[in-house]
Design the sequence.
């Protein structure tokens, strides 16, 4: 059984005098940058770097690369291979460089693109602060915490794979507290974390005080932590925003999953080191990293963006040229054997071409495949609604619901 | 079919009855109105027809062909379904639109709005399974005797087209010899789509690069290798671009969103994609993890993006440049896609045939450098002899992506 302290544990610890840290602001920032992919039943394609869409494409992708360490174009050597294969055309390559760098600089930039060596290693800004657990205490805190955290999140959100349902399915943190109160075993190995879970006055800020120490590093620490498992964090944030994205709904918030993760970190450290550890930033004097600042100029990025333009326009040019060359003469309205409206989806491009070749009197057209019907579907006598409308149209009109009976 | 199979045709049973018309505004569930009123139906059917420029010369049968995708053992099956329908087959949407367009009062209302559809014309909803290459038609029992006969003939044409489509698709599948008989290729395509052991039931949106907004005649004689979203639009019916705004608005989020998800999953499949499918575990039916790495993997798996050239979407519109510029600038959320260059846009002047590209807030004339386009003389041998990838490494795999050919 869990022992509950008579005095809230957090009250025994020294508090930082001034807290600039605002957890709600950090959570909003996290939600902006985390993946927004919904649970598998609703797969809606979207811009993976949607958080940067207010910026110009190249500024955005190279900033994202600087922050998170993403590869955001093909690698330099792959562009060079495509050029040697002729898929990036020399004339387009030269035009792109001339247009962006001027005729006088064309030769020097051509050499950079084709031959210059660049350091292509990446050290993302995210993750550097929490790396200190390894360098100072020789502990891989992610390995100690994440397997358990993922099992708990997965068990709570499970939609039908596990043989046993999560025993309590009210709000996430409340469910964890209930289980801890009523179980013979605990998810924690040590007493402090177990007690803090049940302390109704305990906050994320207090847990960060224990783990980080100085409030000016709290934001960086939380972002480091959540981006060490961006998939789960993004899923939790998405389900919090759209509980209907699960058929068997669960109430969970990013705030509460961060709270539990911080407790698991304290538990892991207490278990591994006893109380012989200090907050990770106790002796840190450098300024916290401005994680989301723009990427500084980097010649390699300029080279990659020139290659990207050359690659794109090598194909675009061919398409535009073909459209211009095969421009039709408008035909009179001859009678049609039938008309067929297909979705604009590019996979329908070929079936349209083939049906037109089989029946030369037919006419095919393309339109978004929801056919102007933004609807939610419900089977008779069921409460489950299924969407059948585009992501872009969510807030435009009241949804119509069509009952489907069998 | 086994429960492991996601069958596109089971999204809606062919014999199910849909409640489509709302005859009483109080007929609601959970605060939502059930079905559409006649006025709402009229608005939607009118919008559908005007958006594609289909306002006259109606055929006896007009098919509305949605799409979905069947596959087995595939947690990402939703990524193969219709993106405009929340990653589901669009069969219900097609059937609802067909029903509304067949409604006699809606027809009458449309006539008052200047769209006269002959009484003998009937709309038919259908679903194309893009993995198995099959089509199912809905509500055929309501066809007139004359149209039933025509429908039988059309179905035979669609079957032939599906055979050819299967053959064209088979060139990218190592397990299917493309030069087999059409019948064998079609069967192999179907079998492959629902094989438990097949990580590539179809290639989804892989290679998508273009979105053409204009009349079919712009591209009818071109082989674009299944790389083009094709949105019908007739500038002649919309000189001021009022309809164009509605056509263009979803192109960024829907087509651009698809394109960018493929782009980023391709360039960094480790961090922005889902890695290889083979060791995927399905977690709680909500996401996948990759082997012992326990984090959920957003993005697309390797088997969906191997053949994808990571290039941004180019939207090509047939209209006057000033009209297109005013249209894309008419809504900030739409303009952001273009001015920030997440998608590219070009215009074909419908009268002069001059090309324009959008750069830094305006359209400037563009003269292509490409030489003469090659011509496909015999489609069968062209497909059978097309280059196949040597490895799935990017510079090898994308050699499969064919240049533009003329079909003349």
Sequence:
């Amino acid at each position: 059984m869990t022992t509950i302290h008579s005095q809230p544990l957090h009250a025994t610890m020294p508090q930082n005098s001034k807290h600039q840290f605002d957890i709600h602001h950090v959570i909003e920032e996290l939600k902006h940058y985390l993946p927004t992919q919904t649970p598998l039943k609703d797969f809606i394609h979207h811009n993976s770097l949607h958080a940067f869409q207010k910026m110009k494409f190249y500024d955005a992708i190279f900033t994202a690369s600087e922050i998170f360490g993403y590869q955001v174009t093909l690698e330099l050597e792959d562009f060079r291979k495509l050029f040697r294969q002729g898929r990036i055309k020399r004339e387009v390559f030269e035009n792109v460089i001339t247009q962006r760098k001027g005729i006088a600089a064309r030769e020097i930039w051509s050499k950079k693109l084709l031959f210059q060596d660049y350091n292509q290693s990446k050290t993302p800004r995210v993750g550097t602060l929490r790396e200190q657990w390894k360098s100072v205490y020789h502990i891989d805190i992610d390995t100690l915490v994440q397997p358990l955290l993922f099992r708990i999140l997965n068990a709570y959100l499970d939609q039908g794979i596990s043989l046993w349902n999560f025993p309590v399915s009210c709000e996430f943190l409340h469910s964890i507290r209930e289980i801890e109160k009523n179980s013979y075993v605990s998810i924690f190995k040590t007493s402090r974390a177990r007690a803090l879970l049940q302390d109704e006055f305990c906050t994320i800020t207090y847990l960060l005080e224990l783990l980080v120490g100085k409030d000016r590093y709290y934001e960086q620490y939380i972002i480091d932590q959540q981006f060490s498992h961006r998939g789960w964090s993004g899923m939790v944030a998405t389900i919090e925003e759209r509980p209907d994205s699960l058929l068997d709904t669960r109430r969970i918030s990013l705030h509460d999953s961060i709270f539990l993760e911080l407790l698991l970190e304290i538990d892991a450290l207490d278990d591994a080191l006893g109380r012989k550890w200090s907050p990770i930033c106790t002796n840190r004097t450098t300024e916290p990293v401005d994680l989301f600042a723009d990427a500084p100029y980097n010649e390699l990025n300029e080279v990659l963006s020139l290659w990207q333009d050359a690659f794109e326009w090598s194909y675009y040019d061919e398409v535009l040229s073909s459209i211009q060359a095969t421009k039709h003469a408008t035909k009179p309205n001859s009678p049609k054997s039938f008309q067929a409206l297909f979705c604009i989806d590019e996979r329908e491009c070929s079936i349209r071409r083939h049906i037109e070749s089989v029946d030369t009197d037919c006419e095919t057209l393309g339109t978004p495949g929801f056919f102007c019907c933004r609807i939610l579907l419900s089977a008779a006598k069921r409460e489950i609604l299924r969407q059948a409308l585009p992501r872009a149209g969510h807030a435009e009109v009241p949804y119509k619901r069509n009952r489907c009976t069998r | 079919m086994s429960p492991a199979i996601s069958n596109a045709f089971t999204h809606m049973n062919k014999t199910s009855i849909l409640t489509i018309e709302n005859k009483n505004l109080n007929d609601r569930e959970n605060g939502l109105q059930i079905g559409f009123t006649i006025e709402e139906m009229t608005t939607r059917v009118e919008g559908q027809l005007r958006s594609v420029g289909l306002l006259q010369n109606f055929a006896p049968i007009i098919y509305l062909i949605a799409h979905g995708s069947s596959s087995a053992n595939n947690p990402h099956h939703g990524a193969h379904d219709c993106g405009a329908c929340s990653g589901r087959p669009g069969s219900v949407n097609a059937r609802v639109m067909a029903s509304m367009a067949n409604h006699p009062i809606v027809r009458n209302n449309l006539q008052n709005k200047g769209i006269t559809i002959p009484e003998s014309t009937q709309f038919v909803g259908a679903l194309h399974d893009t993995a198995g290459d099959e089509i199912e038609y809905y509500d055929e029992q309501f066809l007139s005797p004359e149209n039933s006969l025509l429908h039988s003939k059309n179905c035979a044409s669609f079957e032939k087209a599906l055979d050819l489509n299967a053959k064209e698709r088979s060139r990218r599948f190592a397990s299917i010899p493309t030069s087999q008989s059409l019948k064998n290729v079609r069967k192999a395509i179907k079998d492959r789509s629902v094989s438990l052991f097949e990580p590539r039931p179809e290639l989804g949106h892989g290679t998508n690069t273009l979105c053409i907004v204009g009349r079919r005649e712009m591209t009818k004689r071109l082989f674009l290798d299944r790389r083009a979203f094709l949105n019908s639009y007739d500038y002649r019916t919309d000189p001021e671009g009022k309809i164009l705004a509605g056509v263009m608005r979803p192109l960024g989020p829907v087509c651009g969103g698809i394109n960018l998800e493929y782009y980023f999953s391709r360039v960094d499949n480790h961090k922005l994609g889902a890695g290889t499918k083979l060791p995927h575990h399905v977690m709680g039916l909500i996401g996948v993890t990759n082997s012992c790495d326990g984090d959920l993997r957003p993005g697309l798996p390797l088997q969906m993006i191997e053949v994808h050239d990571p290039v941004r979407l180019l939207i090509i519109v047939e209209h006057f440049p000033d009209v297109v510029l005013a249209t894309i600038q008419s809504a900030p959320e739409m303009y952001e896609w273009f001015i920030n260059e997440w998608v590219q846009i070009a215009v074909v002047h419908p009268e002069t045939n001059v090309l324009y590209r959008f750069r830094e807030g305006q359209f400037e004339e563009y003269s292509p450098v490409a030489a003469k386009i090659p011509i496909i003389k015999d489609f069968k041998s062209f497909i059978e002899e097309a280059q196949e990838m040597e490895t799935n490494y990017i510079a090898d795999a994308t050699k499969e992506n064919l240049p533009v050919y003329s079909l003349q």
